[in-house]
Amino acid sequence: ADMKLKHDSEYVIDGKIYGLPEAKVYREDYNGPAVVGDYLTQVPNIAKLDYEGNKTHDVRMDVFSQKIEVAPGVSYSAWTFGGSVPGPVLHVREGDRVIFKMKNRSDEEVTITKPVKNGSPFFQQVQANNYQNNQPVINPMPHSMDFHSGTVAAEDKWRTISPGETIEFEWIANYAGTYMYHCGTSSVLMHTAMGQYGAVVVSPKDGYPTDKDVDHEYVLVQSEHYLEEAAEGNYIYNHGAALDRQPSHVTFNGHVAALSDNPLRANEGDRVRLHVLNAGPSGTSSFHVIGAIFDRVWYEGDPRNEWYGMQTVLLGASNSATIDFIVPEEGIYKLVDHEFADAERGAAGALIAGPR
Amino acid sequence: ADMKLKHDSEYVIDGKIYGLPEAKVYREDYNGPAVVGDYLTQVPNIAKLDYEGNKTHDVRMDVFSQKIEVAPGVSYSAWTFGGSVPGPVLHVREGDRVIFKMKNRSDEEVTITKPVKNGSPFFQQVQANNYQNNQPVINPMPHSMDFHSGTVAAEDKWRTISPGETIEFEWIANYAGTYMYHCGTSSVLMHTAMGQYGAVVVSPKDGYPTDKDVDHEYVLVQSEHYLEEAAEGNYIYNHGAALDRQPSHVTFNGHVAALSDNPLRANEGDRVRLHVLNAGPSGTSSFHVIGAIFDRVWYEGDPRNEWYGMQTVLLGASNSATIDFIVPEEGIYKLVDHEFADAERGAAGALIAGPR
Amino acid sequence: ADMKLKHDSEYVIDGKIYGLPEAKVYREDYNGPAVVGDYLTQVPNIAKLDYEGNKTHDVRMDVFSQKIEVAPGVSYSAWTFGGSVPGPVLHVREGDRVIFKMKNRSDEEVTITKPVKNGSPFFQQVQANNYQNNQPVINPMPHSMDFHSGTVAAEDKWRTISPGETIEFEWIANYAGTYMYHCGTSSVLMHTAMGQYGAVVVSPKDGYPTDKDVDHEYVLVQSEHYLEEAAEGNYIYNHGAALDRQPSHVTFNGHVAALSDNPLRANEGDRVRLHVLNAGPSGTSSFHVIGAIFDRVWYEGDPRNEWYGMQTVLLGASNSATIDFIVPEEGIYKLVDHEFADAERGAAGALIAGPR
Ligand SMILES: [Cu+2]
Ligand SMILES: [Cu+2]
Ligand SMILES: [Cu+2]
Ligand SMILES: [Cu+2]
Ligand SMILES: [Cu+2]
Ligand SMILES: [Cu+2]
Ligand code: NA
Ligand code: NA
Ligand code: NA
Ligand code: NA
Ligand code: NA
Ligand code: NA
Ligand SMILES: [Zn+2]
Ligand SMILES: [Zn+2]
Ligand SMILES: [Zn+2]
Ligand SMILES: [Zn+2]
Ligand SMILES: [Zn+2]
Ligand SMILES: [Zn+2]
Ligand SMILES: [Zn+2]
Ligand SMILES: [Zn+2]
Ligand SMILES: [Zn+2]
Fold first, then answer.
1. For chain C, which end, N or C, has fewer CB atoms within 10 Å of the first or last residue's CB respectively?
2. How far apart are CA A162 and CA A144, in angstroms?
């Protein structure tokens, strides 16, 4: 980890930095881009780490509501980080420091799809997303941010802020892996089911052993949706169904067709790497690629948790795995939650492989 | 793996062969034995690999319907591979090649229990099965075959064929482990729940470290059944229950009493090896043997995924484990899914141990 | 293991002792303390192993009923080991021998909270428990004891005894790890859901690699409760809900507020060790500590199953993990089953950390 201690409170155990300064909550007159940061992308994309050594990242993800489509004819007023479900993928390296800022703009109409000055690469990618094309909604609500990648006092950094407030805090990427982030405001079941989750990929300092052979790298976030129709095409969250673990939809990357309409791409003979996060909020995922076997699985993304030759990897709620597989032939490879009740509810996608 | 490349399209990565020729679909005038192959058995049996080095296996498993009993007084018209649920166990060695043929005979009455010339050892074993004794049913339906043990383009090899058609393709056992096979025709939830699944055991080239101490070796396939009564004793598949993950029965080897009426056998002091596959289609299994602790668990059957001293192993849908345990004393050892809602629905069996 | 074979029937494989003598079932005129043993505590406590080498433990846990509170205003007549839900935590070392005695006193009123001569440290700790304060209930019922930590013939040692009977048997802690114990009398789903489960911690002979750095050590037992209101505040077990896997409550250590009203304690910079057991009876647990990352996870408690840097550990029904994490800052750390449908039903608690 970055041994340069930047604050008086900081201390080091096993090369990891703890004891970060208290979060600041304040009001700012800000209506700039809702997502700021060079290493923020929309799923399934992941930013390239084009720097050596450790870095301090200034990251902003504002909270606001957007009308989001989950399946054809099924839209709801989502609570979002940065205007998309899942929220932006943040990519950093083990040991990096993140200075994070989030304004609760749930009481504003916020525009996301137009790329903006100082905005993140995330914006161009959202524009290509057919299902999440900037339909702002006002829905004032307290919210918060909990990064599983951070080791901090939650009741300080992950604290709930009101509409109009901004929170600012730091965290260190002490442990490599792929992590969930989500709103931790009660009911967490509701706030995550409403759309407030995403992935942080913390690449290990010394990489994974197959890094040099990887041809394509993608991020997948699985999640359940608990929706019921309120009016023609307009759906609302169903808390009873969420408590009973009866999802209406289960998706990869937020839409039942996200990865069929826009499949992942590779070629025969390629080594493909997937960072798969099961965001829940409650179910497990038995992740499988039809026609492939996982050559390597790094459970939770830690290179020391290395497993081999797996047909399927089981992920609990907020578990992840970093997976390598060889694309055996030109063709179409379906990705599924092999819990077929969930695949049938939408947890399916595709990778299309061209010739060698 | 077998480095002798047999087809122009083949290529090798890390000693594994990819790029197999296109599947062939044709009509053949065939009414011979529905299961052909020397290394095919009925659960819980597993064939002995009585050859050195690599082998090319010619395997046939035809698809057709049979009336199958799942519990006393509960029968349904199953869709089957080879006439049994689960289908035949195929045993090969890492690096072997399988030339697979399957005729969709769902429009025919097919007889299975009588051993036939050129038939598989599978047939003798089915005869000893009280619950699956040859009651042919005609139920014309498109079907397919997806071997998790194969690394191929699924939309080619695992393609759906119509009644009367035969498909032929090859796959290489590139990775050791115990794998699910199943029909991949939509709705996969329905086709697997109807009975179309089974296990392939790919023994590792260099074996498992305790191979020389193993006294008995068995295969267990857990699965859920979603049945409702249509007429006295006659049950049909309930898709709503399958989507809601509310099984009517959960079984080991296809019947709630399969392993109680015909328990596994061993003796005090024996090392018993189980290849356990959870075929789902949706649930997890918390596999446990009452009175024993798993000395070794090779997760997904890969010898590199070696765990120790486990009371219970958790399997996602289409996960497997190869398990060793010592039989501590003469007596009866119950096998259960320790998710007791499922044990109570039938996921239980027994091993009976004689004296040392 | 302890190589001193104490009975003619005993034998050794890989340093583990098998072949223990037959259980004895008899009637005794006993109305002394219901829990006897120096290494028995109430969750979240764990006894210190203040001896060198191997030990033979004489342990008693009688069975009887108690009115137990699961949530504010929700009490039921629990079937218990030793009068608490979960039952006492037993701590032994790998290789130790346990001589276990259990009287089925379900036909008696048994008092537990007053410390008694020859009683266990367990009693003082139960006195501090607000929810389980000695409200005896008579509920005659056959019961049994199944220790997952023992390797024995279950139909002998784990056999069911009637009210008024005592069973006595031995088991050897052949494998390190944290294990479930429970009543194995049919319906096991009902007997465990009624309260008959607890944890045995078998510390490895050579310890875990971080032992010398551990500051605090606790035991957590997660379980589901399937209760419905029968009369004002009086709840009864709902077998249909248990079969359908629809818990009314999910708890850590037996009460939705057990670990909020009496949080775990540590300080900033401490290494905290948790032995987490998911007792089910049916559900999985995606165990997570909000604000922390698990530095080490020994799956099932075996030091050879060492994983790293995990945000969440997935436990099947009767799986366990021994977990180390660093407390990053002064503050409050919530423990949750990150399957938020279950967290919302009560699977949540807290650790409070003081300053360094
Ligand atoms: Cu929120
Ligand atoms: Cu979380
Ligand atoms: Cu089929
Ligand atoms: Cu499959
Ligand atoms: Cu009992
Ligand atoms: Cu058990
Ligand atoms: Na990690
Ligand atoms: Na799932
Ligand atoms: Na494998
Ligand atoms: Na199960
Ligand atoms: Na163990
Ligand atoms: Na759970
Ligand atoms: Zn700073
Ligand atoms: Zn929120
Ligand atoms: Zn490529
Ligand atoms: Zn060929
Ligand atoms: Zn089919
Ligand atoms: Zn034997
Ligand atoms: Zn003795
Ligand atoms: Zn009982
Ligand atoms: Zn302390």
1. C
2. 9
